[in-house]
Design goal:
There is one protein chain. The protein is an alpha+beta fold. It has a single domain, classed as Glutamine Phosphoribosylpyrophosphate, subunit 1, domain 1. The protein is about 15% helix and about 40% strand. It has 3 helices and 13 strands. Strand 5 and strand 6 form a beta hairpin. Helix 1 packs antiparallel against helix 2. The chain starts with 5 loop residues before the first strand and ends with a strand.
Length: about 200
């Protein structure tokens, strides 16, 4: 089954995977503590604005709470900025998702995102027909296609590297690259897996 890009978040853990039929020549790189999806050196040129973006960011709230933001586009930066200003996770997700809306591509691709804290997690999506934002107590997946409403997802990983590798190897079509994050009282750990 092809579900496109997807996010999995639960308290303390999160992962994001790029799955793509149109732009498979991408990878995740670490840019000073922010994980960014972008083209590989041999990727064909494209002017598609949805190919490169920050997919995972560390955040520290005004109270010092460490959080990770994961998602499939430029809204990740807006969500992180709202959290840094002290917005609650629900509002930090809902505001940019509503403002930016679904992607204006040929498929009306939903925007998906999650916020992970040490003891909390919130997941959201904006589609052509809905804005959904939910606090979750167990790992939950939302994808751009087929599984575009938050739904429970079984993830066994306990660290960021294992989370990235587990979702990259998940039984969904066209895997490209993945990122993982864990959050505890000490902070946020990030990792990625480009399948190399």
């Amino acid at each position: 089954m092809y579900i496109g890009r997807f996010v999995v978040v639960g308290p303390g853990i999160g992962a994001y995977r790029v799955s793509s039929r149109s732009f498979p020549d991408r990878r995740v790189v670490d840019r000073d503590g922010t994980l960014t999806v972008g083209p590989t050196p041999d990727a064909p040129e494209t002017d598609n604005p949805y190919v490169s973006y920050n997919c995972v960011r560390r955040v520290e709230t005004p109270t010092g709470e460490p959080l990770a933001v994961l998602g499939n586009g430029s809204h990740v930066d807006s969500i992180a900025e709202k959290l840094e200003l002290g917005y609650p996770a629900r509002d930090a997700l809902a505001t940019p998702l509503l403002a930016l809306d679904f992607e204006k591509d040929d498929y009306d691709t939903p925007r998906i995102a999650g916020v992970v804290g040490a003891e909390t997690a919130t997941i959201g999506t904006v589609r052509r027909d809905a804005l959904l934002v939910e606090s979750v107590d167990e790992p939950t997946l939302v994808a751009t296609y087929e599984r575009d409403s938050p739904d429970a997802y079984d993830i066994a990983a306990e660290d960021a590297e294992a989370a990235a590798s587990e979702v990259l190897g998940a039984d969904f079509e066209h895997p490209v690259c993945a990122a993982g994050a864990t959050v505890d009282d000490e902070g946020v750990s990030l990792a990625f897996d480009n399948g190399e």
